[in-house]
Amino acid sequence: MLIKDDNHISNTEINPKQKEDNTITDIHLFTCWILSDNTIIHKTILQNLRNIGFGSVRTIWIPRNKFFSFFCNSVSNTLLPDTIIGVGESANIKVNKIKRQNPSVFSVQFLSKPKMAARHDLNIVYEKPSSATGKELKYSIQDSEVEMNAEECCNAIHSHFWARQKLFQNWHADLGSPSVEL
């Protein structure tokens, strides 16, 4: 995960004004994996997320990708992405495994019904459109009454991601793991 290294900055004696320049603000530097079940509704969600704006976005179809299970069990935490998004039940089982391995990964869950015991940083519930309302999916953050369209949903993911990044950037190793506090 990309974070500001305060010790390195202070050792090189950069003045405080220059310290601010070392904060990462470009979303394109981060990587994102989207794990998805292979159904029509989940493909529609993926189309809505295609302009999410992360630098390197990879889509992995679950459960078709058998290699992925092996990969997640054997990969080093440094190779995991900064953000992982699960779309559907099967995909979110894999996301939960990755989140257990590395709690610093920012994870987002898309489900039609909210799960209360989810480990994710952001839980998004989608509502299938009825024929009367049109073809657009509606999204809402779990425990929120506010409905969002696809663009607002991507913006919500970004804002939650940056809030969490700021927490990690300001975290002191002496305080323990920030994931415990989240």
SSE blueprint and pairings:
Blueprint lengths: L5 H6 L4 H6 L9 E7 L2 H10 L6 E7 L3 H9 L8 E5 L1 H13 L4 E6 L10 E6 L10 E4 L8 H20 L8 H4 L1
Parallel strand pairs: 1-2, 1-3, 3-4, 4-5
Antiparallel strand pairs: 5-6
Low-confidence stretches: 1-25
Provide the CATH architecture. 3-Layer(aba) Sandwich
**Large-scale geometry:** globular
Please provide the ordered H/E string of secondary-structure elements: HHEHEHEHEEEHH
Structural class: alpha/beta
Gyration radius (Cα, Å) is 18 Å
Number of helices: 7
Relative strand content = 15-25%
Distance between the termini: 17 Å
In total, how many domains does the architecture comprise?
1
Mean pLDDT across the residues is 69
According to CATH, what is the class? Alpha Beta
Count the E strands. 6
| Order of neighbouring strands in the sheet with most strands | 2-1-3-4-5-6
Helix content: 25-40%
User: Assembly state here?
Assistant: single chain
Tell me what the structure shows:
The protein has a six-stranded mixed sheet, with helices on both faces. Helix content is 37%, strand content 19%. It is α/β, with parallel strands linked by helices and 182 residues long. Helix 3 links the parallel strand 1 and strand 2. The two termini are 17 Å apart. It has seven helices and six strands; from the N terminus they run ααβαβαβαβββαα. The radius of gyration is 18 Å and the shape is globular. It has one domain: Rossmann fold (3-Layer(aba) Sandwich), CATH 3.40.50.2300.
